[in-house]
Each structure stands twice: as C-alpha cells, then as structure tokens.
Amino acid sequence: MIVTIDGVAASGKSSVSGGVARALGVPYVSSGLLYRAAALLALEAGVDLRDAPAVLGLLEGRGVRLEPLAEGNRVWLGQRELTADLHSTRVDKGVSAVAALPDVRAWVDAQLRLLPEPFVAEGRDMGTNVFPQAQAKFYLTASPRVRAERRAKERPEDIPAIEAALTRRDEADRRQITPAADALVIDTGPLDLQGVIDVILSTLPDCRS
Questions:
Q1: Which side of the chain, N or C, has fewer Cβ within a 10 Å radius?
Q2: 134-154 pLDDT, tens per residue?
Q3: DSSP designation for 77
C-alpha cells in the first residue's frame, strides 16, 4: 500500500503525512528532504545550485540516505545527521534550483523506489511521476497568505516577506505542483492539522492499523 501526499510549499505536507503514517502504523517518506540535502551540500561545498553534474556528484559520492520513520524522517551523510540543518532560510531559497534539475530528480526518485512498502510518500510529483501506481493520492493546497501565516509561527520572519517568497516558490515549482488526475485535492486553509488528517483517513477505511 502506497499513499501519496503532494501539494504546494508550506501546505502542511510533512505534518499531515506524519499524522497519517502514525495512524496507519507505517513509515512516511519525505522526498523533499533529499532535495534539501542536495541544496545544503551544494551550498556547503560552494557548488553552483544549477550545476547538475556537480550536485549529483555530491549526492552519489558521499553516501546520502533517507531514513523514513513515522515520527519524522532523518537524513544522513555517512555518520553525520543532516536533518536539523535542512530547514534553514538559505536552504529554503536554494531547494527549488536543485529540485528543477532532471538528473537530481531522477536520483531522488530512484532512492524512493527502492523503499519497501507500505508507506506514506510526501512531496512534489509523488502521485504523478514517482508512484503513479499508488492506491491513494492526495494533493494539499492553500492560499499563499494562509501558508505564510503558518510558516511565520515557525520562523522569525514577517508574513508579507514569507508570502512573497512562497509566491515565487510556487512559480519556480510550477511544473512539479500539478495534482495527479486521480488525486483528492484538499484545501487546508479552513482546516487544522487533525482536520486534514481526518479527511484523508476517512477515505482509507480499510487501511487503519
């Protein structure tokens, strides 16, 4: 069983996926963390974020791996855990550039397809490209202002600046944020976290653990 949860930036994909995974008793897989790891490594190495061979070399040659857990994914570089460093502002600004590189996307997709089922897969194009065979697909959306207000609770930045950044991110990610034809689209704006989780679980009556 594979459940995919896609959506725009800051729509709550990670929190929702973790809640759904815990309810189902399965791991959740955050593809976005691998793209963030790519951006972080490129920034640390002083590599151009648009240089596909260089970024791919960092990923393939240094043992980057994702550890999928229901309570939260962890990303490792050998014995070094990268997880805490993946949500900085500089990574936020750089992740779209590396995620747009076809070779990097192919590398991430290959890592995800090696994972054993069942799991909840969260991230861009999970239901359209990576796991088109998934039995249940969901797509989360919300207005830029709603998403900015939520993100402002996590980071010390003003809401208009966050909203502008998210709008730019949506434009940069346009090719990767189209919902699958068979996905259930959920506007998370009027719902709290548990409300979104409940909507998803209500469509999966046979999957509760």
A1: C
A2: 999 999 988 888 888 878 777
A3: E
